[in-house]
């Protein structure tokens, strides 16, 4: 991952690098130089920040039964739902950016996490309350991002259940029945073995931010514009910086199209 990130940053001129870094890396306390302000000089924060807003969940939106097999898109329904899903978590800073983004905007997201990725434990304290409220859902993407069709039955089960335990420990939830086969590759055997441990719904996608690898932020916004539409299961990744620099643009697209972010649990219930 670090190679890919260097490639991305190396391809951006100096001012771009500065923008990317300052926009996203949390300031460490030891780096901060804090000048005291005269008393009374701070205006109160507005209760609602200006700019694009995430629409709240529509309580009248229809709810469907849990699917009996794989899904690629949401049911055609009213309310303009879009399931924004976020995979992997190889970069802890990007995971944290997503977590803060969700907390600050109310965006309803489904994270398909790999427990072996280092990004999740650091942001668990931000995400856990959002998981408990139902705003954020956690689902299973295998522990170490294996190509499931190449793995034995035992390895498939172990990868899912090791990850299952990580999710349970970090977030206190049972991620079943939703899993996403890494690379979107699975077959009947994989589905059968996964179902034997309760993961009965492979979740694919019909829209993508195309950011599994590093991608130019402008291109990422172009993909968002192409695929952020009603009924879409949108694939994103918490792996590289660009997405964390364009959240306002992505929210603007959602707002302009009256799209309502939903988790899988918002749409499907037992
Ligand atoms: Zn993945």
What would you note in describing this structure?
This protein has 270 residues and is an alpha/beta fold. The protein has one domain: Glycoside hydrolase/deacetylase (TIM Barrel). 39% of the residues lie in helices and 13% in strands. The protein has 10 helices and 10 strands. The strands form 3 sheets. Strands 2, 3, 4, 7, 8 and 9 form a 6-stranded parallel sheet that branches. A two-stranded parallel ribbon has the order 1-10. The protein has a two-stranded parallel ribbon with strand order 5-6. Helix 3 packs parallel to helix 4. The protein binds zinc ion. Zinc ion (ZN) binds next to strand 2. One of its GO terms (molecular function) is metal ion binding. Pfam families: Polysacc_deac_1. Keywords: Hydrolase, Metal-binding.
Category from helices, strands and their pairing: alpha/beta
**Arithmetic mean of pLDDT:** 84
Which consecutive residue ranges, at least 5 long each, have pLDDT under 50?
1-49
Report the major sheet. Answer: 6 strands, parallel
Notable characteristics:
270 residues, alpha/beta, TIM Barrel, six-stranded parallel beta sheet, two-stranded parallel ribbon, 10 strands, 39% helix, 13% strand, globular, binds zinc ion, Polysacc_deacetylase_ArnD
